[in-house]
Amino acid sequence: MRTFNRLLAALLGLALAVTGLLICLEIGTALVGRSPSLVPYDRWMESAGLFSWSASETMWVSSGILAAGLTLLAIQLAPRRPRNLNTSFAIPKIEVVVDRVSLEQSLSRAALGVEGVVEATSRANKRRIRTTIDVAGGENGEVSEQVRRVLTTRLADFQVSPVREISVTARTKGRAR
Amino acid sequence: MSRLESKLDQTNRFLLTVIGLIVSAAGTAGLALGTGLLGDSMDQSVSDTLLTLYPPAAPAWAPAVVAASALLLAYLALRWVAAQLRLEPMSHSVEVERDKLGATRVRSSALEHSITADLKHLPGTSDARVRLSEVAKQDLQIRLELTEDSDVAELVALTASALPKAARILGKQDFEASVRLVAVRAKRVN
């Protein structure tokens, strides 16, 4: 999402810069008594005069603008998971963090090492680790417990803090339990 | 993530939220005008409404103010774009000593390579990348790739013990570093 935001910011920034410069240029041109050269205002106003606010075309365009604005707002206001997770390594003047995505992948690989687990995905945030495992041939509670132990050990290796909850959801391969 | 990157992400998020609000407000206004929620403008043409937004007798200084505002907007927008392209103004050289005769400077890349080489050889390390930054909170930013079988605590301790060398070269008493651990799959040896 950060990369998407940077791309979007660059595009919108460029659009705003071009708009600002055009406005400035057009005003300058008008001040010296020449007609607008780059922006066809007259044609734009003419076509805007063809549609009323209640026309279906105008309503569609307004709906599109509203949808774009709401989508942008939803993307920006949605909670984001951190890029790094804190650790409790206590070394003076050195801050040690763990890359979240790589930790999730590492936890999934650790879960896959447990016998019976055929697929595993992990999601981590500052306080919670959620791992979903697919177990071949059904799960009797033992596999989940083993996975939880493996995850706890892996998290302890990295001293990720403060994770308060590790949840393991087991599914029989192909359908939810 | 450096402090600069984090600040940029926050700024992007804030400005994109503001733009999202403005765009949503414009869309809502269009729909409100079209459904008659904002008076009897339903059948008015779009251009007529836009023309009513212009003051009939704008003062003589108004175009200059609009032009100046547009120029300011363009400048700020260009700075916003530039910020996306250049994240971390890295230092090219670091002054390690200064006396009456002059200063001794070490190329940052040379220093980074030297520290990287030390860290790469730590047991259980797959790769290491070191960045020297003058603007980040820390003097050194280290990305350390660890394999599954590595002893993380030992590796972190070894990394910490390798850093005073960097501090000595930099001639810094108050030395700060950030270490970003990246867990990677162990390479298969056939």
Structure overview:
- The complex is a heterodimer of chains A (177) and B (190).
- With 177 residues, chain A is α+β, with helices and mostly antiparallel strands.
- In chain A, 51% of the residues lie in helices and 20% in strands.
- Chain A contains 5 helices and 6 strands.
- Chain A has helices spanning 2-31, 41-49, 56-77, 100-112, 142-158, and strands at residues 84-86, 94-99, 117-124, 128-135, 165-172, 175-176.
- Chain A has a 4-stranded mixed β-sheet with strand order 3-4-5-6.
- In chain A, helix 4 (100-112) packs antiparallel against helix 5.
- The model of chain A has no long low-confidence stretch (mean pLDDT 87).
- By secondary structure, chain B is α+β, with helices and mostly antiparallel strands.
- In chain B, the strands form 2 sheets. Chain B has a 3-stranded mixed β-sheet.
- In chain B, a hairpin with a 7-residue loop joins strand 3 (125-132) and strand 4.
- In chain B, helix 4 (108-120) runs antiparallel to helix 5 (152-170).
- The longest helix of chain B has 32 residues, at 3-34.
- Chain B is elongated and about 75 Å long.
- The mean pLDDT of chain B is 79.
- The chains are: A alpha+beta (177), B alpha+beta (190).
- The interface between A and B is large, with 72 and 74 residues.
Summarize this entry quickly.
Chain A has five helices and six strands; from the N terminus they run αααββαββαββ. Chain A is of the alpha+beta class. Chain A has a four-stranded mixed beta sheet.
Produce the secondary structure layout.
The complex is a heterodimer of chains A (177) and B (190).
Chain A: H1 2-31, H2 41-49, H3 56-77, E1 84-86, E2 94-99, H4 100-112, E3 117-124, E4 128-135, H5 142-158, E5 165-172, E6 175-176
Parallel strand pairs in A: 4-5
Antiparallel strand pairs in A: 1-2, 3-4, 5-6
Helix pairs in contact in A: 4-5
Chain B: H1 3-34, H2 46-52, H3 62-85, E1 93-99, E2 102-107, H4 108-120, E3 125-132, E4 140-147, H5 152-170, E5 177-184
Parallel strand pairs in B: 4-5
Antiparallel strand pairs in B: 1-2, 3-4
Helix pairs in contact in B: 4-5
